[in-house]
Amino acid sequence: METLVVVSHPEIEKSDTQQFLKASAASLSQVVWHHLDSRLPFDVTAEQQAITSADRLIFQFPLYWYMAPASLHQWLTDVWLKQFVYDARGGLLHGKSLGFVVTFSQSATAYQLGGSVGFSISQFLTPYAALAAKTGLTLLPPLTIAQFANQTDLEHQQLLVRYQQYLTLDHPDRPDEQAQWFIDRLSGNADTQLLADQLAAQTDDIDRLRLTLHELKAGESE
């Protein structure tokens, strides 16, 4: 699966968050980093080819006044032309998925009912959900990053894992795929093979437990 990370940020070199994410993605051979602000004015043919070549699109940006920076809107306006993304029969981007990596300086709890912002990140992303529906894209739950500068080293390490999984897994929120991701990276190394085997065994045990619970629930409904 090839992932196109579409980054909208006007001052990316000054952003510790974006530089961290760029470094985190650098080792992933199937991931293409695509910084919009450095590609202005857009070569529409080249941009459309990049979209066509990708299996997954990621819109990655900081939240500015509850919106993405201007370059993402400009890119959508210039590149996502009607004859390219949909026609009279429907969306032309079927088979591709669309995810979001959204960063912000407030706490995560601010973006919920009763929080200081009072609205969720998903609500701010609603226009992109409509865009996905129109063009045939499958939506992924967003990956949100709150207050990166205040995070500990351990939290940064956890974010690196979450980010790489989000870019590469078919279903990044599924525990079985997350576990397999770790197993794949631990296998083949003498120092970590035992840990990989133990993790695989535990994953199998969890799968069997889920099957047992499913059968029990099915029996209760009969």
Automatic annotation (TrEMBL):
Task: Give the Flavodoxin-like fold domain ranges.
Answer: 1-167
Oxidoreductase listed as a keyword: yes
> Which InterPro entries does the protein's record reference?
Flavodoxin_fold, Flavoprotein-like_sf, KefG/KefF
| Keywords of this entry | Oxidoreductase
Q: Which GO terms describe its molecular function?
A: electron transfer activity; FMN binding; NAD(P)H dehydrogenase (quinone) activity
Q: Which domain of life is it from?
A: Bacteria
**Could you say which residues form the signal peptide?**
none
Question: Does Nucleotide-binding count among this protein's keywords?
Answer: no
PANTHER family from the xrefs?
A: GLUTATHIONE-REGULATED POTASSIUM-EFFLUX SYSTEM ANCILLARY PROTEIN KEFG
Q: What is this protein called?
A: NAD(P)H dehydrogenase
